[in-house]
Design goal:
Elements lengths: L1 H9 L3 H4 L4 H33 L2 H24 L7 H30 L1 H64 L11 H54 L4 H9 L3 H24 L4 H43 L2 H29 L1
Helix pairs in contact: 1-3, 3-4, 3-5, 3-9, 5-9, 6-7, 6-8
């Protein structure tokens, strides 16, 4: 049962192969098994590749199965259409386009499995890239908000500096009228005279201005600090909302790029392995000598070609013979007087009808 299934997978003519020896059947069963297992590997590889895209086992398995059927059909077609020739060069020339197609299929099949085999190494590369992307994202977002944050901070610092300058001015006026009262500066007269009162008045006026300035600026500072918190919250929100996008940077294309950053040699060996598997049925047919199946298939095709040539020749003879007979028949009819008189009569009737119609048309116009 399994042998018959693999023979079917090889694309061999069942009526011919089952009339061949057991060894010939085993050869084509081996070719069919290679075709089947290549398609099975294609199914697994495509299912894993699609799982990284859809993140759904059932969808990946279904579309991977469709891809496996496609590869199975292509391989079966490639193997079944190769014919054994008398010269190896002719066989190789015939198989060259099929070998190129097999190489393309092998590369497509091997890439997803390489991604699975080197999954841990790829995850390490992706982790490093994600960290770099996260740092770059934070820097980019910080630069985006930097202008507003710096402007807000500069305004707050300016308001605080204005209060500080006013406080220094008030403190200076305080020291001025105190030292005047103590007699250590100014008029150097001990006591609270007119100069002291004037200096005290200036201090009190400046102190009132300081209180007013402090209230006004502190209200603006409170608004700026609130705005600064809002800007910082927006910055953090921007970073937080973009982080899932970075965390999801592990799709098929990202993994292929990460695979290309790994050492090339192990990946090359795996691809060569699949290339050997994919081209093995073709290579086996090219290297194997012409067997019983090939001779019987060639005999069957030769019989069809001979029958087709005979039918074509017979149809051509039938056409030429029939044409000659009709030439003779029409040559005999040409000399028949009765047929001549009948056609002459009909021609005269037709000319009379045309003349009558023309006359009637002219009368209607007039």
């Amino acid at each position: 049962m399994l042998k018959k299934f693999f023979i079917t997978c090889s694309g061999a003519d069942r009526n011919i192969i089952y009339s061949c020896s057991n060894g010939e059947q085993n050869k084509y069963a081996g070719i069919g098994a290679t075709v089947f297992f290549t398609a099975l590997l294609a199914w697994i590889a495509a299912a894993y590749a699609l799982y990284t895209v859809f993140d759904n086992v059932y969808a990946a398995a279904f579309f991977g199965f469709i891809w496996g059927l496609l590869i199975f059909n292509l391989d079966r077609f490639i193997v079944s259409t190769i014919r054994k020739r008398d010269k190896f060069g002719q066989e190789l020339l015939q198989a060259t386009p099929r070998i190129v197609l097999a190489i393309i299929i092998a590369i497509v099949i091997s890439k997803p499995l390489e991604i699975k085999i080197f999954e841990k190494e790829i995850n390490t590369v992706l982790l490093k890239e994600k960290n770099d992307m996260a740092l770059a994202n934070k820097k980019q977002v910080a630069n985006y908000f930097k202008g507003d944050i710096d402007k807000n901070k500069a305004q707050t610092d300016s308001l605080k500096a204005e209060i500080t300058r006013k406080e220094k001015e008030v403190n200076g006026l305080y020291n001025t009228y105190i030292t005047e009262a103590e007699g250590t500066a100014g008029t150097k007269k001990l006591g609270k005279g007119p100069v002291y009162a004037e200096k005290r008045q200036k201090h009190d006026a400046a102190l009132t201005e300081l209180d007013s300035l402090r209230k006004r600026n502190q209200a603006k500072i409170a608004e700026n600090e609130k705005l600064a918190k809002t800007l910082q919250a927006d910055l953090d929100k921007k970073v937080t909302t973009s982080q899932p996008i970075i965390d999801g940077f592990d799709g098929l294309m990202a993994r292929i790029n990460a695979l290309n950053k790994l050492p090339f040699l192990p990946s090359l060996f795996i691809m060569l392995l699949f290339l050997a598997i994919e081209t093995s049925p073709i290579i086996a047919k090219l290297l194997s000598p012409r067997g019983e199946y090939d001779f019987k298939l060639e005999d069957s095709e030769a019989a069809i070609r001979t029958n087709l040539a005979q039918n074509t020749h017979q149809r051509e003879l039938l056409r030429t013979t029939d044409a000659g007979i009709y030439d003779d028949v029409y040559a005999d009819i040409r000399t028949d007087r009765g047929l001549y008189d009948y056609k002459r009569k009909k021609a005269i009737e037709m000319l009379e009808m045309q003349a009558d119609r023309f006359s009637e048309k002219q009368k209607s116009v007039m």
